[in-house]
Amino acid sequence: MRRSSLFGFDIILLSSTFLLVILGIFFIFSSGVTATGEIYSTEYIKQIVWAVTGLIWLLFLTFSNYRNMKNLAPTIYIIFIILLFITLSFGKVVNGAKSWLGIGDFGIQPSEFAKISTIIFLAFYLQTIGSNIRKLRFFLIGLLIIMVPVGFIIIQPDMGTSLVYFPVFLTMAFLAGAKVRHIFFLILLTCCTTILTILPYLEEMIMGIQYPVFTILKKPEFLLFSLLGIGLIFAVSLWGLMIFKKRYFYWIIYGSSILAGSSICSFGAHMVLKDYQVMRLISFINPYIDPRGTGWNIIQSITAVGSGGVWGKGFLQGTQSHYQYLPQQSTDFIFSIIAEELGFFGGFIILVLYLVILLRGVQILSNTNDKFGLLLGSGILAMILFHLFVNIGMAMGIMPITGIPLLFLSYGGSSLWTALIGIGILLNLSFKQYR
Amino acid sequence: MSDSYGFKIPRDRLLIFRFIIILPIAILLFYLFNLQVVKGLEYQKKAEDILKRDVPIIAQRGMIYDRNYDEPLVYNIDSFAVNVIPGDIPDEDKQRVFKSLSEILKIKENKITDKVKKIGYHQYRPVEIAQGISFKSVAYIAEHMDQFPGVTWISKPIRGYSEETASSLSHVIGYVDEITSEELNIYYNQGYNINSTIGKSGVEKQYDYFLKGIDGKRFKIVDVTEKSLLEKPDADIPPQPGKNLVLTINKDYQVLSEKALGERTGCVLVMRPTTGEILAMVSYPWFDPRIFYAENSSEKFAELSLNPLSPFLNRAVQSAYPPASVFKVIMSTAMLEENAFPIDATITCTGEMVVGDRTAHCWNKTGHGPLSFYDGLANSCNIYFFTIGSEYIGEETIIRYANSFGLGRLTGIDLPGEDPGFIPTPQWKLQHENMKWLKGDTMNLSIGQGWVTVNSIQIAEVISMIANEGKAYKPHVLKEVRDPITGEIIESIEPEELERPYISAQTFQHVKEGMSKVINVGTGRLVTTKAVQVVGKTGTSETGVEEVYKSWFASFAPYKTDNLDERVVVVVLIEDPMNQQWWASQTANIIYQGIFAQQNYEQAMKTLYPWMKFEEPKEQEEQ
Predict the structure, then answer these.
(1) Interchain contact, A308 vs B36, CB within 8 Å
(2) What is this structure's pTM?
(3) Which residues is B541 bridged to in the sheet?
(4) For residue A312, what is the DSSP state?
(5) Whether ipTM exceeds 0.95
(6) How far is CA A58 from CA A5, A11, A416, A428, B469, in A?
(7) What CATH number matches the domain at B52-161+216-247, 3.90.1310.10, 3.30.460.80, 3.90.226.10, 3.40.50.2300?
(8) Of A244, A306, B415, B569, whose CA is between 20 and 30 Å from B614?
């Protein structure tokens, strides 16, 4: 039934992936060349090694039976939770986060692989509970499953990576049949928390004046009062729901718990957020507040992308990149250097390749006859999509800087392996469909 | 696990999932299109701006010469200015960098921090922290660049001064210093920037627009560490050096005047009456403009500013004094021109004069006896001029003549900060003192006392007008503007005749004759030079403090000549001469001897005072 296959491989998915990985290697090479033409970085060679070994992973996963994972799921999950714990205790600090585990130059980032292990376990869980996912209790247990790695990763601290788990969970829960209102509850809670977290800084740092209305959000007394108020509404509505069984009481409870939850969470965020993270958020809103500090990356990246124009400056011809204005060119800002040197033409091709991979992935899912496989694949696709949107959005200044890599393209063994493992699982799913 | 078999694919939700995939990618594509295709050119320009730096190439400031246009009075010395870009110094390094800079550049650390504070600790604009830095210090910084993040330098010559300039010419030349923010507000549109140097006084201020030139620019492409990767020498905009100025000052006369005045607070003016050219201008005490490049310049500057004798004050231009008896030449002109009193008729001086309930005295308490006009002027008799002023001319006419000679208003000399002086009028007195003008006021005005004040340039103008028999020329210190490279004259200052009311030549001849008698038989007898015939008028003003006077001598020479262009006006004012109250005329005596016998100060002194060994004559005579 599948025409575009070669020896049973989904050739479209595979070739799009290869194209992205090869493009990545080329531009990792470009990022290691100075304006005077010297090659000062061997990252591209390492990336080739990672790509080749990653390909072995990919083939291994394609030809193994993904259903076996079902039985291994809890074990894999627990192993990676333990690895995350060990990382926190003995890990190496890279870029301000204790995220590396390894000896010397060789090491892995368990937080990258933990995404896959969590997806596997979550798929296993959601498949096991079946239609019970419609019940709030089971939905919350699912949330708990991701909150364990999320907690560990936040402590590292690596805010960006921890955020990936939420869209992954929401997507998988959605496809497993969770109630839309549960999903929206989580989305709204996240939005409100973000807004309440940023507001006090916003007026303070950006507008330079303080409105008591906003600063009060940082005060514990206010939190107590508002929680009391919301709690009262909550209690009255609950009582109303019990007695009168009217729908609107339910929605009042729904709304008030979002408010209460987000004020607690934003208060927590004010405690937890480090200054540099706040500055990143501020700089995202207006990079010119601190143009040489946290705003620098955004300004340089937007300039690099914008100056690429329609056709780009040509391979190895970028100025922002080769004159070293653009930071972290091979990892966080790989898209910027590509967009500078290949222009809109190149950026368009990359986005189309991703679109092909993702839609092809959904196609594979819709042809599967196994819920575990479908959930597993959807988690992987959600992960790729989130990385893609946040990273490229960041390069263009429409997303805050979170430091998460662009899968397939960014330099880095752990993220490339994770991506290729993900593709391997998807290929396995499609492979299974022929048999 | 039973679920696996009864599993139904959630087709609706997968459709939504597809949509959720397409939407963000579409958003990204939209933004990418906007950024690269719609705004591409704008960002290409931005990208270029980020890489491009233009470094100013400081224009050489014009040099200043005396009228002989040989050795410059003011020139330029190669040196460097050191800048810091505060934002490029990591916060934790700032203190260390400032500290070591203060050691190398030999400036106070707080001077650096003050300047940095002024533009902000995280600014990326270079701020100049020191100038006049030697090549050696800059070379040291260059070799240890890793220890000095954010530190740069440019070639910025400093002013060098000849001996004359470093002393008595300091007031005429003035000095230069860094531009202040107030000045920048005013001059911003004229091509100045925060690191500009600007003239603060004297010619340096007055003619800054000639002197400063236009700074050039050098373009280069730099990487993120500001390392220059590509310079484009052919794209350089070369600086245009400032114009050279040739002053009317005669260096020899200046030195002569400076030495003749000696260490007496006061001023000397030597002027060419036929053109208005200032040949020498001395104001004591003076300052050394080199202090602005000294190690502890700010302390030295503060010290000089607080000096009670105000060394920065150019007494010849920037302060006004009562003219005292010098005013009697104006009284004489008014009397003769108005035919108010016959020239031969006499007034008897008894040494005092009763006006109402007060008694006014002549300086000669025993009285001069009967005096005609010539005797009255030669002896500077107060009673004679009291009588003329109060009984024959009246205050209105006196004021009119004072105005005819240009008193009470600016002469328009091309030096900043001129004090216009003041001529009191009955209306003014009524308004400000709320009292009627009295006869005593007219008498006071008649001998140049009371409220009337004049500056030395005005007195030189009065004397010039008498010498020229009615013509007066605008005083000036600039003679020519010359091209700094070819030496070609770009602009030459022609004598500018000032508008003066008609006064007959005959009147002036009588006044001159009277002034010659001042020298021959009167109060100016100490002018003994045989080199030229001098005419002049003395004046001693009371300062209100007993035995403290200001002593004037206003004169020109030669009295009669066929070559009017050789004439010079010499005005001397000495503040608080104490027991040297005649020194004003003696100073002029030495100057005339030097100019007309073509001698230097030492030779002139030997000729005039052969019995003295370079000691100041300490004669005491009554006025």
Answers:
(1) yes
(2) 0.65
(3) B550
(4) -
(5) no
(6) 16, 14, 11, 9, 112
(7) 3.90.1310.10
(8) B569
